[in-house]
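Lab manual, section 2.4: Encoding a predicted structure.

Procedure: take the sequence of the chain (341 residues), apply the prediction step described in section 2.3, and record the output as structure tokens. A sample record is shown.
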Amino acid sequence: MADKEARNVPTLASIAERVGVSVNTVSRALRAPNTVRIELRRRINAAMEELNYVPNRLAGGLSGTRSDIVGVVVTSLYYSEFASIIDSLQSALLEHDLQVMLANTRYDADQELRLVRSLLSWRPAAVAIIGVDHPPKVVELLKASGIPIIEMWDTGGAIIDTAVGFDHTRVGAAQADHLIAQGYRRLAFVGSVRENDKRAQKRLSGLEAAAAAAGLPEIVKYTAQQGGSPELGEGLTIELMERNSEIDAIACNSDVVAFGVLRALNKLGKRVPEDIGVMAFGDNEAAACVSPSLSTIRPDRERIGKLTAEAIVARINDAKPNTTVVDWQLIVRESTRRGII
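Recorded output:
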């Protein structure tokens, strides 16, 4: 990174100057807090928060020292949603002698802040993080770090530095457009839409906008804050169909939820795709194996991982920030194949 960026990274000296104490006092507050008065510790901690200072965990390291670590922050490890990205990213980074340090936020904003702060304390060479929607304090810390920040999986929003991914709103619109082209008119959405899962929210927004543009009735939504699973999809679908028997198509926020949707519809005696079409997102390995096989959106995870690694190396070597949009595919299988197109 440029020298100018490095000089902007807060140091022990800048904390000491802000509080009006010596560097040694600030250092003691970090290494042996019980040796520093409580009131002074509070002032030092407040100054660190204000300046977005992150302690350096490298043994004997100077404030400007960088490791060969790349911090990678994902939002979930369930159902291998990001496994291919991490595998591809790690393989490509190893060719440049860079190591991955992985953190999983579980879609928890407070945990994201703690994990990002912890990763930055190891003075990573760069950070790759899922999504472009983060708590304000996380954005402040990442911007203040002076290192390359690569946001993965999403490009639909304000970008800190560099991004590699796709527009999730367009994905939701594509789900709706496909169902409409197959002759479905009463659409529903089923799935996990957690408060901090902005990508799922964007896909739902795109689905609703496309349905409204086509003059369809308002989409019926059955969602939950818990993580997506077949059990969740099954339970929500049974509840949905008990109250909305006119529904003829269901879009899901993930394949694993859609597996439960298919199971519920089978129990209810509904034919797929004749009575109800089912459309999902993710192209899980089992999507082509269930019966009926599942229509879905296939993101190019391996390419996102590879391009993220390339972006990290380029930014370390002072290339300019940029945004790379990665294509995805709409995979049509039996669950929506009415033959109307």
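Check your result against the sample. The chain is about 40% helix and 15% strand.
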